[in-house]
Fold Glucose-1-phosphate adenylyltransferase.
Amino acid sequence: MEQKRNQPLARDAMAYVLAGGRGSRLKELTDRRAKPAVYFGGKARIIDFALSNALNSGIRRIGVATQYKAHSLIRHLQRGWNFFRPERNESFDILPASQRVSETQWYEGTADAVYQNIDIIEDYGVEYMVILAGDHIYKMDYELMLQQHVDSGAQVTIGCLEVPRMEATGFGVMHVNEKDEIIDFVEKPADPPGIPGNPEMALASMGIYVFHTRFLMDLLRRDAEDPNSSRDFGKDIIPYIVENGKAVAHRFTASCVRSDFEREAYWRDVGTVDAYWQANIDLTDITPELDIYDSTWPIWTFAEIKPPAKFVHDDEDRRGSAISSLVSGDCIISGSSLHRSLLFTGVRANSYSRLEGAVVLPDVKIGRHAQLRNVVIDRGVIIPEGLVVGEDPELDGRRFRRSENGICLITQAMIDKLDL
């Protein structure tokens, strides 16, 4: 029965963020942290986008399921997301894989990561569940997706991106009818089905699902008893509903949040070093495709108490300067020049060094005369004096992790192996 709209549906929903993935294509960036905990945009972590979307949409009950190398992620959530108050009917639960159902069982799949916490979810008595991936960059109003879910009478509503058809081969793809009802769900198809009326485009799953809570709990219990299930939403739960019930696609363009400066619906999977570098560097554009300055839809994160950034020296070849760059608090640019670069908190760039196309994570120290071009530098790395990266591809490839597009990922372990 449809709920009367005397309050937003989000107030009776729980956002459940699946944040246990390693993100192995990010190579050494995820050696010590899960992909959702990877830094992004100068201050935030990747997971902050899904969490901020939930908060800005009006959802006040949030759970985060963690698994792979979760300490960095959990510490960030405890520091930055600890403002929810139970007396306001708010909650924020960090749910590590803790063998709650079986003494030998960690989370076996995305569906199992929800199933193992059914008792916690049911205690809150929420009407709707919004299942989210914690590793994508986008802004979206989940209230609009909840409204479509209720109005359509769907058993599951799936967030979908419209992508060129032959670019959808790496996604789960929805085959829909004219009403956007899903008639088939195909995982990574070689020949993706087109959209009715727009055959050159396909609907790719964003990993965002809306359910009525009671229906989802029943479905998860049934799935847990199936010995042949892989306990996964994309492989098991969604295909079952498509075959036996009613699944509806929700197009991202219907609920994406855009400021006056954002022309297109922005969504990025920053799951490779190249994609990660590009999405960060894109923020240095005069009018970037993602507006992180939009105060009407803020990206919440852990706000460190740090002094402002500082630029010093003004000699001809020793000038603290930054052109088309983002520089976070507690950075000191001491006679160093930055061009189209993004610096996280606490970076020290020393005299005569030059950074171009650099994504520099927190607490990095750049030695004098270093020349760094098209790099991602992991947290806490100490760049030695005079190091040159970005001029000799063969030398870079021997020393560092060099991507297909020529982006060099630099870690302290790589620096320690250098023969300087």
In short: The first strand starts at residue 13 and ends at 18. The two ends are 71 Å apart (CA to CA). Residues 118 and 217 are 7 Å apart (CA to CA). The mean pLDDT is 95.
